[in-house]
From TrEMBL:
<protein>
    <recommendedName>
        <fullName>DUF4352 domain-containing protein</fullName>
    </recommendedName>
</protein>
<keyword id="KW-0732">Signal</keyword>
<feature type="signal peptide">
    <location>
        <begin position="1"/>
        <end position="22"/>
    </location>
</feature>
Amino acid sequence: MKKIIILLVAFMLSGCSSPKSTETKVTPTQTELEMTEVYTIDNQLEFEMIKTSLTDEIAPANKNRTYQYLKPADNQHIFIDIIVRTHNLSENEYELSDLYSGKIELNNEKHDVQLAIESIHYTQMSTTDTLKPQEERYIHLYCEVAKNNTKQQAQLALQVMNQKDYQYTFSLEEVQEDNQVKSIGDVINCSNSQITILDCQESERIEPSQKGFFYSYHPTDREDQIFVVLSLEIQNQSSLDIDPAEYIYCEYQMNDEIIHSQIILESEDHKSISESSSILAGQTRTLYLAMPILKTQADTEGTMTLFVEGNVFEIYQSQN
Protein backbone atom coordinates (compact mmCIF):
# COMPACT_ATOMS: atom_id res chain seq x y z
CA MET A 1 0.00 0.00 0.00
CA LYS A 2 1.16 3.52 -0.74
CA LYS A 3 1.67 5.85 2.20
CA ILE A 4 0.76 9.38 1.19
CA ILE A 5 1.44 12.52 3.21
CA ILE A 6 -0.72 15.48 2.26
CA LEU A 7 0.51 19.07 2.69
CA LEU A 8 -1.19 22.32 1.71
CA VAL A 9 0.29 25.72 0.75
CA ALA A 10 -0.73 28.86 -1.11
CA PHE A 11 -0.05 28.74 -4.89
CA MET A 12 2.60 31.48 -4.91
CA LEU A 13 4.36 30.32 -1.75
CA SER A 14 7.27 27.91 -2.12
CA GLY A 15 9.34 26.09 0.49
CA CYS A 16 6.88 26.60 3.32
CA SER A 17 8.43 23.74 5.28
CA SER A 18 11.84 22.11 5.39
CA PRO A 19 12.21 18.35 4.76
CA LYS A 20 12.49 17.82 8.53
CA SER A 21 9.28 19.66 9.35
CA THR A 22 6.35 17.57 10.57
CA GLU A 23 3.68 20.28 10.49
CA THR A 24 2.17 22.46 7.76
CA LYS A 25 0.22 25.65 8.37
CA VAL A 26 -2.97 25.81 6.32
CA THR A 27 -4.85 28.97 5.41
CA PRO A 28 -8.65 28.97 4.92
CA THR A 29 -8.27 29.49 1.13
CA GLN A 30 -6.21 26.33 0.65
CA THR A 31 -7.41 22.81 -0.08
CA GLU A 32 -5.66 19.55 0.70
CA LEU A 33 -5.42 17.01 -2.12
CA GLU A 34 -5.97 13.39 -1.14
CA MET A 35 -5.63 10.29 -3.27
CA THR A 36 -9.02 8.84 -4.44
CA GLU A 37 -10.88 11.88 -3.10
CA VAL A 38 -13.32 13.39 -5.65
CA TYR A 39 -13.20 17.16 -6.24
CA THR A 40 -15.56 19.39 -8.22
CA ILE A 41 -14.86 22.80 -9.76
CA ASP A 42 -17.97 25.01 -10.18
CA ASN A 43 -20.04 22.10 -11.53
CA GLN A 44 -17.78 22.21 -14.61
CA LEU A 45 -15.20 19.56 -13.79
CA GLU A 46 -14.90 16.54 -11.52
CA PHE A 47 -11.47 15.03 -10.91
CA GLU A 48 -9.83 12.36 -8.77
CA MET A 49 -6.20 11.29 -8.41
CA ILE A 50 -6.24 7.52 -8.78
CA LYS A 51 -2.61 6.47 -9.10
CA THR A 52 0.97 7.68 -8.70
CA SER A 53 3.87 5.68 -10.09
CA LEU A 54 7.48 5.68 -11.22
CA THR A 55 7.46 4.25 -14.74
CA ASP A 56 9.61 3.79 -17.82
CA GLU A 57 6.72 4.77 -20.09
CA ILE A 58 3.57 6.89 -20.06
CA ALA A 59 1.09 4.34 -21.36
CA PRO A 60 -2.69 3.89 -21.51
CA ALA A 61 -4.45 1.80 -18.89
CA ASN A 62 -5.83 -0.65 -21.48
CA LYS A 63 -2.83 -1.55 -23.56
CA ASN A 64 -3.43 -3.32 -26.86
CA ARG A 65 -1.19 -4.66 -29.62
CA THR A 66 -0.75 -1.19 -31.16
CA TYR A 67 -0.83 1.11 -28.14
CA GLN A 68 1.12 4.37 -28.22
CA TYR A 69 3.28 5.52 -25.32
CA LEU A 70 5.86 8.10 -24.29
CA LYS A 71 9.45 7.14 -23.43
CA PRO A 72 12.07 9.07 -21.40
CA ALA A 73 15.08 10.62 -23.10
CA ASP A 74 17.42 7.76 -22.15
CA ASN A 75 17.86 4.81 -19.78
CA GLN A 76 19.11 7.09 -17.00
CA HIS A 77 15.74 8.82 -16.68
CA ILE A 78 12.30 7.76 -15.50
CA PHE A 79 8.84 9.33 -15.30
CA ILE A 80 6.86 10.42 -12.26
CA ASP A 81 3.31 9.74 -13.45
CA ILE A 82 0.13 10.88 -11.67
CA ILE A 83 -3.10 9.64 -13.26
CA VAL A 84 -6.18 11.83 -12.75
CA ARG A 85 -9.66 10.61 -13.61
CA THR A 86 -11.25 13.70 -15.15
CA HIS A 87 -14.97 14.16 -15.92
CA ASN A 88 -16.15 17.14 -17.95
CA LEU A 89 -19.51 18.09 -16.41
CA SER A 90 -20.12 20.94 -18.85
CA GLU A 91 -21.05 21.36 -22.50
CA ASN A 92 -17.67 22.96 -23.23
CA GLU A 93 -14.68 21.33 -24.90
CA TYR A 94 -11.37 21.79 -23.07
CA GLU A 95 -7.76 21.55 -24.16
CA LEU A 96 -5.46 19.90 -21.63
CA SER A 97 -3.83 23.23 -20.79
CA ASP A 98 -7.27 24.59 -19.88
CA LEU A 99 -7.60 21.92 -17.22
CA TYR A 100 -4.29 21.47 -15.43
CA SER A 101 -0.96 23.22 -14.96
CA GLY A 102 1.71 22.97 -12.31
CA LYS A 103 5.15 21.85 -11.22
CA ILE A 104 6.64 18.83 -9.51
CA GLU A 105 9.46 19.68 -7.10
CA LEU A 106 12.11 17.07 -6.36
CA ASN A 107 15.37 17.65 -4.49
CA ASN A 108 14.93 21.44 -4.76
CA GLU A 109 14.49 21.22 -8.53
CA LYS A 110 11.17 22.14 -10.15
CA HIS A 111 9.90 20.30 -13.23
CA ASP A 112 7.00 21.55 -15.35
CA VAL A 113 4.03 19.18 -15.38
CA GLN A 114 3.48 17.64 -18.81
CA LEU A 115 0.02 16.43 -19.85
CA ALA A 116 -1.24 13.45 -21.85
CA ILE A 117 -4.78 12.10 -22.21
CA GLU A 118 -5.96 8.55 -22.78
CA SER A 119 -8.52 7.71 -25.47
CA ILE A 120 -12.12 7.07 -24.48
CA HIS A 121 -11.45 3.31 -24.42
CA TYR A 122 -8.16 3.76 -22.50
CA THR A 123 -6.16 2.20 -25.36
CA GLN A 124 -4.12 5.11 -26.80
CA MET A 125 -2.26 8.21 -25.60
CA SER A 126 -2.33 11.76 -26.96
CA THR A 127 -0.79 15.07 -25.94
CA THR A 128 -3.07 17.11 -28.26
CA ASP A 129 -6.53 15.58 -27.86
CA THR A 130 -9.27 17.50 -26.03
CA LEU A 131 -11.80 16.63 -23.33
CA LYS A 132 -15.22 16.71 -24.98
CA PRO A 133 -18.51 17.73 -23.28
CA GLN A 134 -19.64 15.17 -20.67
CA GLU A 135 -16.63 12.93 -21.33
CA GLU A 136 -14.69 11.11 -18.64
CA ARG A 137 -11.04 10.34 -19.43
CA TYR A 138 -7.76 9.55 -17.71
CA ILE A 139 -5.24 12.41 -17.85
CA HIS A 140 -1.58 11.85 -16.98
CA LEU A 141 0.35 14.56 -15.12
CA TYR A 142 4.00 13.64 -15.50
CA CYS A 143 7.60 14.79 -15.56
CA GLU A 144 10.95 13.18 -16.36
CA VAL A 145 13.60 12.86 -13.64
CA ALA A 146 16.97 11.13 -13.20
CA LYS A 147 16.70 7.57 -11.87
CA ASN A 148 19.32 8.29 -9.20
CA ASN A 149 17.12 11.08 -7.87
CA THR A 150 14.03 9.09 -6.93
CA LYS A 151 14.74 8.31 -3.25
CA GLN A 152 13.26 11.62 -2.25
CA GLN A 153 10.01 13.24 -1.28
CA ALA A 154 8.25 14.88 -4.24
CA GLN A 155 5.74 17.69 -4.19
CA LEU A 156 3.09 18.54 -6.79
CA ALA A 157 1.79 22.12 -6.99
CA LEU A 158 -1.30 21.93 -9.18
CA GLN A 159 -3.70 24.54 -10.55
CA VAL A 160 -7.04 23.33 -11.92
CA MET A 161 -8.93 25.28 -14.62
CA ASN A 162 -6.81 28.34 -13.80
CA GLN A 163 -8.96 28.75 -10.68
CA LYS A 164 -7.98 26.62 -7.73
CA ASP A 165 -4.61 25.58 -6.31
CA TYR A 166 -3.70 22.27 -4.72
CA GLN A 167 -0.60 20.62 -3.31
CA TYR A 168 0.17 16.95 -3.00
CA THR A 169 3.30 15.57 -1.30
CA PHE A 170 4.40 11.95 -1.64
CA SER A 171 7.44 9.73 -1.10
CA LEU A 172 8.92 8.27 -4.28
CA GLU A 173 10.43 5.40 -2.28
CA GLU A 174 6.94 4.24 -1.40
CA VAL A 175 5.33 4.74 -4.82
CA GLN A 176 4.58 1.43 -6.52
CA GLU A 177 2.27 -0.26 -8.97
CA ASP A 178 -0.89 -1.30 -7.14
CA ASN A 179 -2.34 -3.94 -9.47
CA GLN A 180 -5.15 -6.03 -8.10
CA VAL A 181 -4.48 -9.77 -8.06
CA LYS A 182 -7.16 -12.10 -9.45
CA SER A 183 -7.31 -15.89 -9.63
CA ILE A 184 -9.22 -18.57 -11.52
CA GLY A 185 -12.91 -18.35 -10.59
CA ASP A 186 -12.79 -14.69 -9.56
CA VAL A 187 -15.41 -12.27 -10.88
CA ILE A 188 -14.49 -8.75 -12.01
CA ASN A 189 -17.38 -6.28 -11.96
CA CYS A 190 -16.77 -3.46 -14.46
CA SER A 191 -18.98 -0.56 -15.48
CA ASN A 192 -20.10 -2.24 -18.70
CA SER A 193 -19.57 -5.92 -18.04
CA GLN A 194 -19.12 -8.74 -15.58
CA ILE A 195 -16.04 -10.87 -16.26
CA THR A 196 -15.44 -14.33 -14.83
CA ILE A 197 -11.94 -15.83 -15.04
CA LEU A 198 -12.57 -19.38 -16.23
CA ASP A 199 -9.15 -20.91 -16.78
CA CYS A 200 -5.49 -20.36 -17.60
CA GLN A 201 -3.59 -23.09 -19.42
CA GLU A 202 -1.20 -23.92 -22.25
CA SER A 203 -2.49 -25.17 -25.58
CA GLU A 204 -1.17 -25.70 -29.10
CA ARG A 205 -4.35 -24.22 -30.58
CA ILE A 206 -7.61 -22.49 -29.65
CA GLU A 207 -10.77 -24.57 -30.21
CA PRO A 208 -14.45 -23.97 -29.44
CA SER A 209 -15.53 -25.57 -26.19
CA GLN A 210 -18.37 -27.52 -27.84
CA LYS A 211 -16.81 -28.49 -31.16
CA GLY A 212 -18.73 -30.72 -33.53
CA PHE A 213 -17.54 -33.10 -36.22
CA PHE A 214 -16.44 -30.12 -38.34
CA TYR A 215 -15.05 -27.04 -36.61
CA SER A 216 -12.48 -24.29 -37.07
CA TYR A 217 -9.56 -23.67 -34.73
CA HIS A 218 -6.86 -21.02 -34.23
CA PRO A 219 -3.28 -22.38 -34.37
CA THR A 220 0.02 -20.79 -33.42
CA ASP A 221 1.99 -19.15 -36.22
CA ARG A 222 4.92 -21.53 -35.81
CA GLU A 223 5.32 -25.21 -34.97
CA ASP A 224 7.78 -24.45 -32.17
CA GLN A 225 5.21 -22.28 -30.35
CA ILE A 226 2.48 -22.93 -27.81
CA PHE A 227 -0.23 -20.63 -26.44
CA VAL A 228 -0.62 -19.47 -22.87
CA VAL A 229 -4.41 -18.99 -22.84
CA LEU A 230 -6.53 -16.96 -20.42
CA SER A 231 -10.19 -17.97 -20.78
CA LEU A 232 -12.86 -15.47 -19.71
CA GLU A 233 -16.65 -15.29 -19.66
CA ILE A 234 -17.82 -11.76 -20.42
CA GLN A 235 -21.40 -10.66 -19.79
CA ASN A 236 -22.15 -7.40 -21.61
CA GLN A 237 -24.30 -5.44 -19.14
CA SER A 238 -24.39 -2.25 -21.20
CA SER A 239 -26.77 -1.07 -23.93
CA LEU A 240 -23.94 -0.98 -26.50
CA ASP A 241 -21.97 -3.67 -28.29
CA ILE A 242 -18.46 -4.40 -27.00
CA ASP A 243 -15.56 -4.72 -29.43
CA PRO A 244 -13.08 -6.95 -27.54
CA ALA A 245 -10.12 -5.48 -29.44
CA GLU A 246 -10.93 -2.05 -27.99
CA TYR A 247 -12.22 -3.24 -24.64
CA ILE A 248 -9.80 -5.78 -23.19
CA TYR A 249 -6.17 -6.82 -23.50
CA CYS A 250 -3.63 -9.08 -21.84
CA GLU A 251 0.17 -9.26 -21.61
CA TYR A 252 2.42 -12.13 -20.61
CA GLN A 253 5.91 -11.17 -19.44
CA MET A 254 8.83 -13.55 -19.08
CA ASN A 255 12.06 -11.91 -17.94
CA ASP A 256 12.29 -8.79 -20.15
CA GLU A 257 10.11 -10.15 -22.96
CA ILE A 258 6.47 -9.00 -23.27
CA ILE A 259 4.08 -11.14 -25.34
CA HIS A 260 0.90 -9.43 -26.53
CA SER A 261 -2.42 -11.27 -26.50
CA GLN A 262 -4.37 -12.43 -29.51
CA ILE A 263 -8.14 -12.16 -29.03
CA ILE A 264 -10.42 -15.04 -30.04
CA LEU A 265 -14.16 -14.86 -29.34
CA GLU A 266 -16.34 -17.95 -29.10
CA SER A 267 -19.82 -17.94 -30.63
CA GLU A 268 -22.85 -17.75 -28.35
CA ASP A 269 -23.57 -21.45 -28.92
CA HIS A 270 -19.89 -22.30 -28.18
CA LYS A 271 -19.49 -24.17 -31.51
CA SER A 272 -17.22 -21.78 -33.43
CA ILE A 273 -14.61 -19.07 -32.87
CA SER A 274 -13.78 -15.73 -34.51
CA GLU A 275 -11.09 -13.05 -34.31
CA SER A 276 -13.33 -10.14 -35.35
CA SER A 277 -16.74 -10.54 -33.73
CA SER A 278 -18.40 -8.28 -31.11
CA ILE A 279 -20.25 -9.00 -27.87
CA LEU A 280 -23.76 -7.66 -28.38
CA ALA A 281 -25.64 -5.82 -25.65
CA GLY A 282 -26.96 -8.35 -23.13
CA GLN A 283 -24.89 -11.23 -24.50
CA THR A 284 -22.62 -13.53 -22.53
CA ARG A 285 -19.64 -14.85 -24.50
CA THR A 286 -16.46 -16.81 -23.89
CA LEU A 287 -13.26 -14.98 -24.79
CA TYR A 288 -9.77 -16.42 -25.18
CA LEU A 289 -6.69 -14.21 -24.72
CA ALA A 290 -3.89 -16.23 -26.28
CA MET A 291 -0.20 -15.37 -25.93
CA PRO A 292 2.26 -17.41 -28.03
CA ILE A 293 5.51 -18.53 -26.43
CA LEU A 294 8.21 -20.99 -27.49
CA LYS A 295 7.61 -24.57 -26.42
CA THR A 296 11.03 -24.46 -24.78
CA GLN A 297 9.70 -21.64 -22.55
CA ALA A 298 6.73 -23.66 -21.32
CA ASP A 299 8.30 -24.24 -17.90
CA THR A 300 9.46 -20.63 -17.54
CA GLU A 301 7.52 -18.64 -14.96
CA GLY A 302 5.84 -15.50 -16.29
CA THR A 303 3.57 -12.69 -15.15
CA MET A 304 0.13 -12.22 -16.70
CA THR A 305 -1.52 -8.79 -16.64
CA LEU A 306 -5.10 -8.04 -17.71
CA PHE A 307 -6.25 -4.58 -18.81
CA VAL A 308 -9.96 -3.69 -18.96
CA GLU A 309 -11.92 -0.42 -18.64
CA GLY A 310 -8.89 1.45 -17.36
CA ASN A 311 -8.22 -1.14 -14.63
CA VAL A 312 -5.13 -3.35 -14.30
CA PHE A 313 -5.24 -6.85 -12.82
CA GLU A 314 -2.46 -9.33 -12.24
CA ILE A 315 -3.66 -12.88 -12.89
CA TYR A 316 -2.35 -15.40 -10.38
CA GLN A 317 -1.37 -18.67 -12.06
CA SER A 318 -1.15 -21.71 -9.83
CA GLN A 319 1.98 -23.80 -10.34
CA ASN A 320 1.02 -27.39 -11.07
